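The data layer described in this paper is built around a simple, fixed record for each protein. Such a record has a labelled line for the sequence and another for the C-alpha cells. For reference, a complete record is included directly beneath this paragraph.
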Amino acid sequence: MSTLIRCLPVLALLLAPLAMAEKAASESALARTFKDADLKWGPCPPFIPKGCEIAVLHGDPAKPNVDVFFKVPGGSSIPSHTHTSAERMVLVSGKMEVTYEGQAPVALKPGMYAYGPARLAHQATCAKGDPCVLFIAFESPLDAIPTDAAAK
C-alpha cells in the first residue's frame, strides 16, 4: 500500500500532459487581423478616451489567459493606469509612445514587441493618423485600473 501512495504523485505528473493535450486538441486553430469583419469590438473602460475599442480574440476576459486587440484612434492619449496582469504586446497598426513609471518613453512601430509588468503604471499616446492597434496577451483576467492621476 505504501508503494502505491509513493507512486501516486509520479503518476499524476505523467498523466497531466495527457489531459492538457486532450483539451488542446479540442480547440480550433485561429488566425485573425484587426480588419476582420467578424470581430466583435466592444467599449474600453470609461477613463480611456472615446473611440477606444477592444476585441477578444481568444479566451474569456474574466478568466486567465485572454488575448485581445486594443484599438484607439490616431491622436489619442491613454491615461495612466495599471493591470493586475503582466501584458505582452505587439503593435499591429499606427505609431505609439508608451511610458512606464520610472522608465524612459518607448516609441513603438508596427511589429514591435513590448512587455509590461503587472501593476506598473503606464500611459500611452497614439500618433496622429492611423489608429493604433495592439495585440495584448494577458496572463490574469483582463482589467485596467486608472491611477490617481488618471482619475482626476
